[in-house]
Amino acid sequence: MRTAERIKGRVVEIEVGEAAGFGWVAAGLVLEGFPHEKGILFEAKAQDPIEAETQLRAEIEAFFA
Questions:
Q1: If residue 54 lies in a helix (H) or strand (E), which one and from where to where?
Q2: Average pLDDT in the 9-15 region?
Q3: How many CB atoms neighbour CB 15 within 10 A?
Q4: How far apart are CA 29 and CA 12, in angstroms?
Q5: DSSP symbols for 3-33
Q6: Is the pLDDT of residue 7 over 70?
Q7: Cα(52)–Cα(59) distance, rounded to whole angstroms?
Q8: What's the CA gap between 31 and 35, in Å, rounded?
């Protein structure tokens, strides 16, 4: 699953994939925003894809809070 959306005004691509031994991994990349933010990568690991994506969103939002 792959989505592109805005979190607090920044375009973020989120990809959720299964990783052997870890359950599910979600990765998010900040694509736009201030120049120093471009290319920041976030990762979250969880037992299911919804939980992984939820953790990832929370981590990105907390970072830019």
A1: helix 49-63
A2: 88
A3: 15
A4: 5
A5: EEEEETTEEEEEEEEEETTTEEEEEEEE-SS
A6: yes
A7: 11
A8: 10
Question: What are the tokens at 23?
Answer: 């359950």
Q: Give the 3-state secondary structure of residue 46.
A: strand
Whole-structure pTM value? 0.79
What is residue 60's three-state secondary structure?
Answer: helix
CA 21 centroid distance within chain = 20
Tokens linked to 64: 């830019």
Q: How far apart are CA 46 and CA 65, in angstroms?
A: 23
The answer to whether 25 and 16 are in contact (CB under 8 A) is yes
- The predicted-structure confidence for 18-54, as pLDDT tens digits, reads as follows 887 778 998 898 876 666 666 788 999 999 999 999 9
**Rounded CA gap, 33 and 44, in Å?**
22
